[in-house]
Amino acid sequence: MIKQIRADQLLPGMYIHDLNCGWLDHPFFSNAFAVRDQATVEKIVKLGIKTLYIDTIKGADVWAAPTQHDVNADLERRMLEIAQKQAEKPVVVELREEVARARRLHGEANKIVRNMLEDIRLGQQIQIERLEPLVENMVDSIFRHQDALLPLAHLKTHDDYTFEHSVSVCALMVAFARGMKLPRETVKELALGALLHDVGKACVPDEILNKPGKLNDDEFERIKSHVDEGVHLLRTMPGLGEVSMQVISQHHERFDGTGYPHAMSGKQISLHGQMAAIVDVYDAISSERVYHRGMSPTQALKKLLEWSSHHFDPQLVQSFIRAIGIYPAGTLVRLESKRMGVVTEQNEGNLLEPVVRVFYHAGQSHYVPPEIVDLSKVQDRIASFESFEKWKIDPYQWLPS
After folding, report:
1. Which domain holds residue 221?
2. Are strands 339-347 and 350-361 parallel, antiparallel or unpaired?
């Protein structure tokens, strides 16, 4: 049986089923392994891991600990509570009007950020003025209709992850800030900081960034140094405001003080740094990497909600979920009718009944004529979220075009 325990309940002789943290938040070879000595227990506690999952069939038990099923049921209940709160998503244009523009912008953004990181590696200075028009265009697109650009955030390739991740975090941060009704100038500063938040990785060797196996302790520390490297590169840069620098310097800090580089906690971390941490983790755990399989968007949101008991401010996590939806645009879902499709856009004030582009029948295992289904207007409902990889479906093919 899989159970969730506190890290201070962990003992030698237990079998860890899941360390319950991001792949780059620990130096162990795997997320699942037998605990053989007290030194391993102490190492896990020192990493700041608060809860984890054990397999009681393969190792010792904690009899009063909740099962994974119980934890998941509680998360489902909390997600439902979030969905029932009104989420205002003012749409300026129809989705079809924004889609082509968003796709061009996404391609342009990836190219600009790739070139910027290459320039840094060559010792050239970042030119903020070249990024400002891009930021302006991304903010405009999200404000016109965020579901045109946000699904593209999930489309990444293993070799290009570093710069594609920066573009995705930028788009998600704008949607988050928009949902919180922050001033437009603050939104632009957040977007610029998000676009630049990982520039320090240009100072980390590619063989470490893209290592297919587990990082050793030295490599783990080298990866973590990217925050200070980024601050060093950018702190004297003209045109970069305090809000942007907070995103860059604090996106790996954690609410409970277990983050880096300064182990800040609570309100020591700025609102903008806390927002950046949430968005950065969401995009990282929902992305495919050479060393781990990405979660579905909905599953990643549930994990954020679980971690909001320690790593993140619970209210901010709930605000982020309301901003992008329980089933974010681009999520593959199965309906109660056994039809499957991709969520194309949210319905204002109804996060459980988005618009879905249906194209497959799971019960009969074949494609069906594509159809746009507004779940707020039919009897069908979402039964589950699904994996594109499991069903061998190309996500790009079924996004709005």
Report:
1. 95-324
2. antiparallel
